Structures are given as structure tokens and as C-alpha cells.
Amino acid sequence: MTKFVVDAGAALRFAATGSPLPDVHELLAPTLLRSQALSAMHEAVHQGSLTAAEARERLARLNRLKIRLLGDGVLRKVAWTIADELGWESTYAAEYVALTRLQADYLVTLDDDLARAVQGVVATAPFDALLDPRS
Q: Model confidence over 21-33: pLDDT tens digits?
């Protein structure tokens, strides 16, 4: 089984596809995923790129995805350390990186800057790996 940590962007894109998750994959995310996804959908509606109904449907699909949400003290401690190591002010992205380091095989993000920043820290996978049962 391949374990993927998905950030909010990747999780929302996966929810938008409506594709089933291959049985050989497991999705994980820090607990902050839900708040970040909610904010991203609200921003999309505010900017006019989605209707409120589309955003709510995408959030509903996200909530139906089988994503193991984690947020214990060990994760927070490792996220703090990673943020320090990478010189980040915020620990939000560091939580995804920490969870990948602690429990997953790959981080899946749509944020190219984040993917570049974590090279050599954790392994990343392209979004399409979530759809491929051979990954």
C-alpha cells in the first residue's frame, strides 16, 4: 500500500475529479486540511471562479474521501523543526511535510514552490499518482 500525504489543493482537485481512490493507496493529511480546504473554496467563490453550489459540492466530496487526518503532538513538534530547518515563518506547510516524513511514502501537492522547497527533505509524487493503482 502506498501512503500519500495530500495538501488541500491536491485533495480538492482529487475531490473534483470524482475518481475513486485505488484500493492500494491510503491518503493522509494533517487536521488543518479541512480548514484550508474550506478557506480555498470560499476564496474561489469570492473571486468568481466557482459558484457557491460548486464549492459546497466539492467540499462535500472532499468530506466523503477516505483521508486519515492526524494532528498529534509528535506531528506538531516535527513540523516546528522542519519549519526551522527550511527557514519558514509558518508551520502550515511544514505539517504536511512532517506527516510525510513520519508516516507516508510521498507528498502530493499542486504547489510547485512547496515541491521544490522540500526536495531532499521528503519524496513527492505528481497528482496523477493518486489515480494510478500501480503507484
A: 999 999 999 999 9
**Axis crossing angle, helix 8-17 with helix 33-47, rounded to the nearest 10:** 70
Sign of CA dihedral 98, 106, 22, 58: positive
**Structure-block grid coordinates of residue 135:** 503507484
What is the residue-averaged pLDDT of the chain?
96
Nearest to 87 by CA among 131, 117, 56: 117
Give, for 74, the enclosing helix (H) or strand (E): helix 73-86
Question: Which run of H or of E encompasses 2?
Answer: strand 2-6
The 10 Å Cβ neighbour count of residue 98 is 26
Entry pTM: 0.94
